[in-house]
């Protein structure tokens, strides 16, 4: 079930609340905020074992974030991006809390094993190390969101703005 109820985008799923659900809700919130800036939009996503509440967000900021994500999508249409929803979300969450990823390496590797598929592994390699070995590209870095790896930089570009306005329970 999903839809707009009052000033909220509501999505309910029988699946476990996952990064892909939160990201979908985030994109919808940004788009709706840009399309109708006079309303204080929120997004609520409920899944098995969790609830994500996003927003409201400033319309000007939402426009900048959405434009950046569209720019990243354009790059992804030209070449595969080192990005995987679960692993990227976890990496970004660690960095959002000012934690270094190394002590959480096993968790990240487990998530990467769940995220990757054969085609993706053929391009980037089957290990998380292969992903993290690709250096960040300066033109893709956004201020303090830059990381040593391209994977880390993209993870933070995608999820850091979401994390800054999310109440996750």
Short descriptors:
about 170 residues; about 15% strand; globular; 5-stranded mixed sheet; about 50% helix; alpha+beta
Strand content: 15-25%
Spell out the helices and strands N to C: EEHEEHHHHHHE
**How far apart are the termini?**
20 Å
Summed over residues and divided by their number, the pLDDT gives a mean of 93
* Main beta sheet strand tally, sense and closure: 5 strands, mixed
As residue ranges, the low-confidence spans are: none
Query: Could you say which overall geometry the principal axes of the C-alpha atoms support?
Result: globular
As laid out across the biggest beta sheet, the strand order is: 1-2-3-4-5
Helical amount: 40-55%
Compute the number of strand runs: 5
Structural class: alpha+beta
Task: Produce a short descriptive summary.
With 169 residues, this protein is an alpha+beta fold.
Please give a structural write-up.
With 169 residues, this protein is an alpha+beta fold. It has 2 domains: 2-76, no CATH class; 81-163, no CATH class. 52% of the residues lie in helices and 17% in strands. Strands 1-2-3-4-5 form a 5-stranded mixed beta sheet. The longest helix has 20 residues, at 59-78. It is globular. The relative contact order is 0.15. The model has no long low-confidence stretch (mean pLDDT 93).
């Amino acid at each position: 079930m999903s839809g707009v109820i009052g000033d909220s985008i509501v999505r309910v799923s029988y699946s476990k609340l996952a990064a892909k659900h939160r990201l979908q809700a985030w994109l919808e919130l940004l788009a709706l905020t840009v399309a109708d800036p006079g309303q204080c939009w929120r997004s609520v996503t409920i899944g098995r074992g969790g609830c994500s509440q996003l927003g409201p967000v400033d319309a000007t900021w939402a426009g900048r974030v959405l434009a950046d994500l569209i720019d990243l999508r354009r790059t992804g249409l030209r070449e595969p991006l080192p990005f995987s929803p679960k692993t990227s979300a976890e990496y970004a969450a660690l960095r959002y809390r000012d934690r270094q990823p190394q002590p959480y390496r096993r968790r990240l590797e487990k998530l990467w094993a769940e995220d990757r598929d054969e085609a993706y592994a053929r391009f980037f390699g089957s290990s998380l190390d292969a992903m993290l070995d690709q250096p960040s590209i300066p033109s893709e870095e956004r201020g303090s969101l830059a990381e040593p790896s391209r994977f880390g930089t993209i993870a933070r570009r995608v999820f850091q703005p979401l994390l800054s306005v999310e109440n996750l329970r």
